[in-house]
Input
Amino acid sequence: MTAKLKVPTSFAPHRHTVLDPRSLGRPVHLLKDFASELRSLIEDLFRQALNRRYRAGYALGEIGIEPAGTPLPPGAWLSAEHRPGRLSCLLERSLVLSVMHYRYGAQAPQAGTADAAPAETSTEERLTGLLGQQILQGLATRLIDTGPAAAAVSFAPALRLAPTPDAWLIRVPVRDESQGLDSTLLLAIDGAWMNQLLREREPHRAATPATTALPQPRELAARLPLKLAARLLQTEMPLGELMDLKPGAVIPVSLKATEVLVDGERLFTASVAEHQGKLCLTSFTDAD
Output
């Protein structure tokens, strides 16, 4: 008797979880809370400025946040500069025309006819700038969170500037069933703003109880066989000043972002923090 062995012609590829280095030591999982806060903010804006006043029916869908490096859709982006960086927004024209219909009685856009829309008018341009300014100012207020600084958020009128290359992209679906509108409001938060947002949302960790067993350095080395070198600071000085140094001399330095190297290659920058009398690295970001 002959047995036949069936050999599969293909195998399902083994999927590995790819870790994003931008998430190392950063509370990116808390961005879902920020998305909920941002949705409430924009809902209030649409409700007070449009839904109640003009009996519009705008509703928001689930907000999505995409990390830096995501291709940014082309279009007439509006941007505003406010410390520490740039905030941008892009209103799809179908949304602007829909608002014009409620505010000025302009012809409502028909689904699937965006390409046949008339040329942009000065009224439409001013309305786009007004809506963009309100949205960006609200976004900055939410990023600063609360306190006197949030109440004082104000910047010059938004300009037609594209977001920075390191911007994180936020997609806000906007719908109005009465007009058949299915549009998207796009927001872009540059890397400096996002770093501040994540730092402010880092949980305050309580001191580790003495009874808790901490992993030993050798155990950690076995799990992470890469050697990280932190270059705390580097300074240059003339050879003459170096030769004149004596015991007790002081070299003025300032500690900023720390360079993290692997086998001599600069891969990340990180912040230096103190924990139980020891220096630690946190808030890793990609090196430029």
